[in-house]
Amino acid sequence: MDTAILKAQIIRDKYTKAASFRLETEGNWSLYAGDSFDSINHKEPILIGNGSGVYPLNVSTSIRIYFELHNNGEILNLSERHLPMEGCYNFRDLGGFKTKDGRYTKWGKLFRADELSSLTEGDVAYLASIPIISVVDFRAQAETKRYRDNLPSTVQFTYPIAITPGNLSSEGIQANLLKTNIDSHMKHMNRLLVSDPACVRAYRIFFAIIQNNLSAPLVFHCSAGKDRAGMAAALVLYALGVDEETIMQDYLSSKIYLSDKYDAFIAKYPRAEPIFTAKRMFLQAGINQIKRDYGTIMNFLTKELKVDLIKMRRLYLD
Fold first, then answer.
1. pLDDT digit string (tens) for 141-171?
2. How many CA atoms lie within 13 A of 18 on its CB side?
3. pTM of the predicted model, to two decimals?
4. What angle do CA 252, 253, 255 make, to 5 degrees?
5. How far apart are CA 73 and CA 66, in angstroms?
6. Is 220 helix (H, G, I), strand (E, B) or coil?
7. How far apart are CA 45 and CA 59, in angstroms?
8. Is the peptide bond before 160 cis (omega within 30 degrees of 0)?
9. CA 286, CA 309: separation in Å to the nearest integer?
10. CA 104, CA 97: separation in Å to the nearest integer?
């Protein structure tokens, strides 16, 4: 993984939204802040220091803040990767990933999430400060009716694009528990995400939306934010030139963020664990399917999903 991403991190508390800055480095550094990258105050740093440490940040807890780190001649843009949503578990920014050609994915443009029905008033205000203007919902119609998104008033466009491989409804989950090998079922589902014509068509529509320069900031989500949204996030990062292992680590992060959401259920129904977690073999099954069918991920993106790589990188890379 990229060392620059590992050495500097903004962390927000899920409930208080208080921010802290974690840094592993040598030498002098300065940290600047603003409510957007364009409005960062370069005249007065909010923190200065020397060497590594964890530092509390005296910044607003009600709006999202963006940061710029100056360290050893390097300038690095930062914000929190995992957004502090009290009513949501797996809400993440796809910014800050280093690409194979040395660029970075832009912060504050594309977000991935689980279901948004339980967002609190504070969560909604926080998302409005970004401001989120588009929402892509990969859930089935029955899911969207049962658990309606609670969205900020800044949202102008909503796109219901149902993706339903392997029956991901609650009834489907109960049926899946009867299967003898749930790991195999989850691998098969990930293969379907990139081979079933209806799923492929949904991802083609998704890429058409995010390639519209009026769509971002945009969040795409499903119920857990790890399968349908997880594959979408992986394909976006591939299109932007992020390396495969970094993409896999981002996918596997869902296991950490979803633990609070599903641990009690898994403790009661241990066989359900593969349905509610992220395992390397699951995403890898889908990636391997693409390579078997199309030779390379880029062939799948450009020929099947109609991705304009030049436009994507212009929109979403610094």
1. 989 999 999 999 999 999 999 998 865 444 4
2. 5
3. 0.92
4. 75
5. 19
6. strand
7. 12
8. no
9. 21
10. 5
Q: In whole angstroms, what separates CA 211 from the centre of its chain? A: 17
Task: Read off the DSSP letter of residue 113.
Answer: E
**What pLDDT score was predicted for residue 1?**
33
Coil, strand or helix: which one is 88?
coil
Question: How many Cβ atoms sit within 10 Å of the Cβ of residue 270?
Answer: 8
Long-range contacts of 279-282 (CB under 8 A, 24+ apart): 279/183, 279/186, 279/252, 279/255, 280/248, 280/252, 281/183, 281/187, 282/183, 282/186, 282/187, 282/189, 282/190, 282/227
Q: How far apart are CA 299 and CA 286, in angstroms?
A: 15
Which three-class secondary structure state does DSSP give residue 144? Answer: helix
Phi, psi of 214 (to 5 degrees): -100, 0
Secondary element (H or E) of residue 22:
strand 19-23
For every residue of 252-312, DSSP letters joined together read: HHHHHHTHHHHHHHHHH-GGGGGGGS--HHHHHHHHHHHHHHHSSHHHIIIIIS---HHHH
Give the pLDDT score at 99: 96
CA distance 282 to 254: 12
Nearest to 81 by CA among 97, 70, 68: 97
For every residue of 28-74, DSSP letters joined together read EEEEEEESSGGG---SS-SEEEES-EEEEE---SSS--EEEEEETTE
Instruction: Convert the pLDDT of each residue in 258-285 to its tens digit.
Output: 988 888 888 888 888 888 899 999 999 9
SS3 183: helix
| Amino acid present at 265 | F
